[in-house]
Amino acid sequence: MYDFDKLIERSGTNAYKLDLRQRYFGTDDVIPLWVADMDFAAPEAVQQAIQERAKHEIYGYTIRKEEFTGAIVDWCQYKHNWVIKNDWIEYSPGVVPALVFSVLAFSEIGDGVIINTPVYPPFYSVVADNKRKILANGLVNVDGKYEIDFELLEKQASLSDTKIFILCSPHNPVGRVWTKEELLRVHEICSKHNVLVLADEIHADLTLFGHEHTPFASLNEEAAMNCISFMAPSKTFNIAGFSTSYVITANPKLLKAYRDTQNRLQLHMGHLFSGVALCSAYNHGRDWLEALKAYLERNILFVEDFLKEKLPEISFYRPEATYLIWMSFKAWNKSQKEIKDFLVKEAKVGLNDGVSFGKDGEGFMRMNIASPRSVLEQALNQIYEARK
Question: Is the whole-model pTM more than 0.90?
Fold first, then answer.
């Protein structure tokens, strides 16, 4: 019913993933398995809704009515068994901009912000570019599975100038779905030390292999009052080109402070098609998403089997969510530059450089497996043939 094996030509569409290869890799001659969007067509319902709206001749300023927040309320109940209210929700122009607004609203210059490293690169700039202090809480690698260093988190949260913990949940790039017990411990520590939790949950819908996402704010009432959640259908339905993200908080004081900052920067208006895309995806994309997740799981198992058979020195912990694989090349005993140069110049495959996620990404690369399996097979064979 859904053809995820279909090869869709993206050249000429100003796709970041393709058209920035020269800048990032120094050549266009690499299979692009880096930027975190998918090479799959968006759900047909989304395509139709966008096309139907585009038929109208006027593309003026837009507002978001209750159907926008209502779709979000219904989705959170359906997907995460999380009961929220319409008036807890605010549009945002993107998860990363929303994190910036929150850092500006809830901390001062010089304050500390905790992040779990290695982590999505913008987390660093969200903090440092706004003159806050990065408190790197390095994840502990236990046989490939990453865990939070709670002892260090306690020490960092207890510092008088620590104001915020940005939680990546599920985690990008390591693919962990934090358990309810782990999240409760985060909550206990942050609540104890009056540290606000900003929960980036953009990958929440993409849990795999039976894992279930627990929204941080759903833990209990106290956690809900000390948290802002950041979500979007962009990763889920491959509609990142639209501004479809939003924030959720049950705490009216937090919501007002967030809104005040976003409005002060005049970034509250939104994209004409964002509401159309979000509502159609959430209201009509459920079957498509289940089919997508099954395909992603098969892709991950395919990569896993290929590496075990032909490149056993390359390893990864099977991701519990996302379509991203955090691959260890440490057994190659090469420098990071040598690994990247080999993949680009010899294998002609473009992956994300592990050190872009922080210094603890040394020896790792991130692979995006949200492509037709034939593309993954070609890329892996190119690595294998170049390595022989």
Answer: yes
